[in-house]
Design brief:
N-DRC_Component; Methane Monooxygenase Hydroxylase, Chain G, domain 1; single chain; 4 helices; IQ and AAA domain-containing protein 1-like
Length: about 110
């Protein structure tokens, strides 16, 4: 693939990161959710979105040649991986389990499991 392809993939990853951050960091503070299932679904959806973003950033980082762009993509990738780990920890604390089955959520998001 050409460099333009990865630049386009990087731009798409940035757009999806912006939209996910808007959902993740809403301006109004949210009250703690009492229903465990609703709280888990919200966190799991963010988790899947960040995983998608992380995969596209990783592909961009792997194939980019420009050193300054690689540095920026690497910082974004590190921040995204950190957020994925935070969400995974939150999912573990909500369900008290290391293993999560997100098949229904992935199907609802029309992704291939």
């Amino acid at each position: 693939m050409s460099h333009n392809t990865y630049n386009i993939l990087w731009a798409e990853a940035q757009q999806s990161l912006k939209s996910t951050l808007v959902n993740d960091l809403s301006s109004e503070p949210q009250l703690p959710e009492r229903d465990q299932q609703v709280a888990f679904q919200r966190v799991a959806k963010l988790y899947v979105n960040y995983i998608q973003i992380m995969r596209s950033l990783e592909a961009c980082y792997d194939q980019m040649v420009h050193p300054q762009k690689r540095r920026v993509v690497r910082q974004l990738l590190d921040a995204t991986v950190g957020r994925v780990l935070e969400l995974k920890s939150e999912m573990v604390s909500i369900e008290c389990s290391e293993y999560h089955f997100l098949d229904d959520l992935v199907t609802d998001m029309k992704l291939v499991p």
